[in-house]
Structure formats: structure tokens, C-alpha cells
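1st attempt posting a full record on here, be nice pls
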Amino acid sequence: MREFQRKRHRRSFLYSRVVLLVLFIVLALLLKAVWGAYGREQEGTANLERAQDELAALHARAAALEEKLSRLKTTEGIEAEIREQFQVAKPGEKMVVVVPDKNPAESVSEPRQSFVSRLFDFFR
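the predicted structure (as C-alpha cells):
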């Protein structure tokens, strides 16, 4: 009988409001910790994707610079680069410089007329 009463006392203690409140608070703290870990995981994933994009861009830039460097190792490449940057010509060549017009020709177009105004113009 005493064993039954001890079990009953334990059960009533475990199901008391105080214990349930403490368990609920512990559960809430655990959920908050899990939510924080989930947020950090999402942020880490975003940072990883951003870093991978930057790495791919840097690899592409390195490849472009290697290509430009290999082109500059030839005499034709050096000549093309000098012509591009300084706009020079070889002796005997002529150079043409095209200057854009300051006042571009304005296109004169008739404003679109509504159906009613076209109808009135038809009867005039």
C-alpha cells in the first residue's frame, strides 16, 4: 500500500502545475535556441553562396588577366594595346577622329491624335 501511495504522490507531483510550468519554460528555451541555430544556419548558407559567387568571379578575372598577359607577350598584342590606349598610328598611316554632333537631329513626329480628333479632322 505504501508503494502505491508513493507512486501516487510522485505522479501528483509530476503533474502539478509548477512542474508543468517549469517544463514549459524549459521547452520554450529549447525552442528559442533551435530557432537561433536555424537562423545562423540560414545566414551561413547565404554567406557560403556569396563567397562561392565571389570565388567564381575571381577565377573568371584571373583567366581574363592570364589571357591578356599572354597576348601582351607578343609584339602584335603590345602594338594593339598601345594603339587602343594612346590612339597612335604608325608612320605613313592616317588616323580619322570622328567627333559626335553636339546637337543631334531631333526627330519631328506628329503627336498621336485620339480617335475623336481624327474624326473631327475627317469632316473638315
